[in-house]
């Protein structure tokens, strides 16, 4: 029978472990839909198969997490994961910014998917270690099963990228949407007074870096001092404040 290392009130580590479980549970629940979308947008059969197979694995991973929650005597309650949501957003961005049916899209989908895999590998590895520390050996075994699947999925994507997809994408012409604009008439060359003032201050710092005191106890005001970087709203340098310090006799 599994027991916690310490009896009584849960430790901070115990609560942290549970929160991580809830966050990765949220990730896996939503990843199923993300992988389905990636499968639909991929162009090669092998990549489609890789996404589909991992989606099926993800269903099993969800079941393992639910078993861990059950063993702990708590409900399987997902908690929003900020980090994974950011990676999901990158995946949607990849789809929006690449051409349908292109090798470029397949290569970008692999990168987006591997970012998710690496996040999961780090999370499941850490969760397994925490589970062992807290005395949840059965949970650790389940987490390590999932960890092995994540590593295998990541390796599969690397193989697909290196074997064909990246090479094809490297010789594929960019679409018109990807090319930089040829009309540069809207680009202004007018200088910004504030930027010019800051540049002048930085140049002055270089020029005055080796300045020495003009006389004992009174230092010269280097043209690149912090005061030179202060500018008014219109970009003109602010007047330097007079020092109230007295020079030593």
UniProtKB/TrEMBL annotation:
Residues 238-249 have a biased composition (Basic residues). Residues 181-191 have a biased composition (Polar residues). Gene3D superfamilies: 1.20.1260.10. SUPFAM superfamilies: Ferritin-like. Residues 161-249 are annotated as: Disordered. Pfam families: DUF892. This is Ferritin-like metal-binding protein YciE. It comes from Parapedobacter luteus.
């Amino acid at each position: 029978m599994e027991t916690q290392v310490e009896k009584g009130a849960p430790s901070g580590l115990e609560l942290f472990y549970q929160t991580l479980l809830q966050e990765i549970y949220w990730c896996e629940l939503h990843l199923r839909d993300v992988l389905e979308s990636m499968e639909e947008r991929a162009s090669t059969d092998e990549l489609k198969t890789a996404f589909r197979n991992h989606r099926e694995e993800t269903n099993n991973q969800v079941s393992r997490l639910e078993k861990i929650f059950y063993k702990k005597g708590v409900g399987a309650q997902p908690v929003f994961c900020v980090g994974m949501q950011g990676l999901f957003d990158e995946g949607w961005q990849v789809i929006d910014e690449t051409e349908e049916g292109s090798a470029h899209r397949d290569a970008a989908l692999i990168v987006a998917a591997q970012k998710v895999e690496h996040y999961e590998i780090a999370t499941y590895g850490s969760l397994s270690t925490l589970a062992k520390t807290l005395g949840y050996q059965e949970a650790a075994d389940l987490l390590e099963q999932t960890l092995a699947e994540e590593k295998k999925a990541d390796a599969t994507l690397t193989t697909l990228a290196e074997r064909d997809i990246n090479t094809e994408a490297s010789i594929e012409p960019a679409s018109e949407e990807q090319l930089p604009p040829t009309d540069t008439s809207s680009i202004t060359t007018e200088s910004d007074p504030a930027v010019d003032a800051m540049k002048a201050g930085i140049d002055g710092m270089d020029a005055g870096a080796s300045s020495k005191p003009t006389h004992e106890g009174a230092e010269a005001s280097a043209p690149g001092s912090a005061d030179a970087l202060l500018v008014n709203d219109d970009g003109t340098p602010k007047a330097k404040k007079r020092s109230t310090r007295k020079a030593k006799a």
